[in-house]
Amino acid sequence: MSFTYVCFPAVCFRSRKDQCQPDVHSDTVGAMRWERLFDDLEGEVVEMAALERDAEISERVRAEVSAVRWLERLRGSLGATIGVELMAVGPVRGVVRYVGPNWLLLDDGGRDFLVPAGSVIGVEGAGRSAPVESERVPLTWAAAWRSLARDRAVVRLVRLDGTALRGTVGQVGADFIEIEGAGERARARLVPFAGIAMAHTEREGER
Questions:
Q1: Which positions of the chain have pLDDT values less than 70?
Q2: Strand-pair partners of 113
Q3: Neighbour tally for 185: CB within 10 Å
């Protein structure tokens, strides 16, 4: 017995309408997948940029702070009360009235304390204020003493060895002052700037 084989082409049972339209669902899913990928990448770029910006800002802040001297920082505390620890004197508290290039002026409510930078061993309450810029040229330690000499101010001066002198500010040199004692026979005492721990003007009642 012989058989005859007849081959028919594969028949697609989709409707004619389905055959004419693309696979919209597949394309939509693919597009959404790429959109999510792009969104993720863009988010990572933005995050990295923010981290780099924060790191750059932090580095700039560290660099700026590392260049600030402690006296410059105290200029941000003008008008504030701080405590300073001084060699041969101990702690002194007062309102910051002036900060020079190598000294500062404190006010305790009745006396002006002249403090050379070299005698300061600690500062309390300086805060974190930024340095205050000023167009004025700051007075030096010698200029402050010349101002007192013009006023014939009476001061009490403490030296680095703890001893004290009292008298009127006389001659002021490049690196020294003279303290004139009371009385005709009193002799002026020369004190180098390097030997001064602190000095303060006296109240009227102390004279």
A1: 1-31, 34, 38, 55-68, 129-136, 183-185, 203-207
A2: 106, 200
A3: 6
3-state secondary structure 29-85: HHHHHHHHHHHHHHHHHHHHHHHHHHHHHHHHHHHHHHCCCHHHHHHHHCCCEEEEE
pTM of the entire structure? 0.66
CA 165 to chain CA centroid, nearest Å: 37
Exposed, middle or buried: residue 117 (CB in 10 Å: 0-12, 13-18, 19+)? middle
User: Given the structure tokens 């997948």, which residue do they identify?
Assistant: 33
Instruction: Tell me which DSSP letter residue 199 carries.
Output: E
pLDDT tens for each residue of 63-95: 455 666 888 889 889 999 999 999 999 999 999
Which is nearest to 176 in space by CA: 207, 149, 156? Answer: 149
Residues making up the chain, counted from first to last: 207
Distance of CA 147 to the CA centre of its chain: 30
